[in-house]
TrEMBL record:
<protein>
    <submittedName>
        <fullName>Zf-CGNR multi-domain protein</fullName>
    </submittedName>
</protein>
<feature type="domain" description="Zinc finger CGNR">
    <location>
        <begin position="153"/>
        <end position="196"/>
    </location>
</feature>
<dbReference type="InterPro" id="IPR023286">
    <property type="entry name" value="ABATE_dom_sf"/>
</dbReference>
<dbReference type="InterPro" id="IPR021005">
    <property type="entry name" value="Znf_CGNR"/>
</dbReference>
<dbReference type="Pfam" id="PF07336">
    <property type="entry name" value="ABATE"/>
</dbReference>
<dbReference type="InterPro" id="IPR010852">
    <property type="entry name" value="ABATE"/>
</dbReference>
<dbReference type="Pfam" id="PF11706">
    <property type="entry name" value="zf-CGNR"/>
</dbReference>
Length: 200
């Protein structure tokens, strides 16, 4: 991955948007949509949508082969597995066997291979560049996250009914909210109103 900058702008179907940094690209990917009640947040409707998401920093993947419908299906399966595994780890539950199997299966494929440009100061991905490689890279990042020192810092937002998950990469490890501008401010506002209601 080119840069350490993670995070994307998430859009609420009811209106509004906010920047959410999950702390890892694989967790950012987990928030591109979902199944069941999360289907309203779906952003990967067709193969081109997956190509566009992968083309954004920090991955900045320029495909040399068009994303296929099969790769889109595999991407959604990996996304769900990452989501399920992250929520299980955040709540201290055992990881679902199906999620582990899906992540491991995606990681088997060759990952993206970094390549230094001729100027020696910039890097890209060595061709050919396919979606399967990008998915392998995301799966491998999730494996490192789950098996590494930050595994205990995978958390679910403390906001009411907010299912967003992130890895707390802050030095004190005190992050509670998906975003201060969203759930953090809502909590502050509720606390303020509660204090005001208690005052004579």
């Amino acid at each position: 991955m080119r840069a350490n900058a993670t995070g994307r702008v998430l859009h609420d179907p009811k209106g509004g948007s906010f920047r959410f940094d999950a702390g890892a690209v694989c967790l950012d990917f987990a928030h591109t949509g979902g199944e069941g009640r999360y289907a309203i947040f779906e952003s990967l409707h067709e193969p081109a949508d997956l190509a566009e998401w992968l083309a954004q920093p920090p991955l900045a993947v320029a495909m040399t082969a068009a994303v296929t419908a099969r790769e889109l299906t595999a991407a959604k399966a990996l996304r769900q597995a990452i989501w399920d595994a992250a929520h299980a780890r955040a709540s201290g539950r055992p990881l679902p066997a199906s999620a582990i199997a899906t992540i491991n299966r995606a990681a088997i494929a060759a990952p993206l291979i970094p390549e230094l440009a001729a100027d020696g100061t910039t890097a890209g991905w060595a061709p050919p560049v396919r979606a399967t490689q990008a998915l392998s890279t995301l799966a491998r990042e999730m494996i490192e996250l789950l098996a590494g020192p930050l595994a205990e810092r995978i958390r679910e937002c403390a906001g009411d009914n907010c299912p967003l998950v992130f890895v707390d990469t802050s030095r004190p490890g005190a992050r509670r909210w998906c975003a201060m501008e969203r759930c953090g401010n809502r909590h502050k506002l509720r606390a303020l109103r509660a204090r005001q209601a208690m005052e004579p």
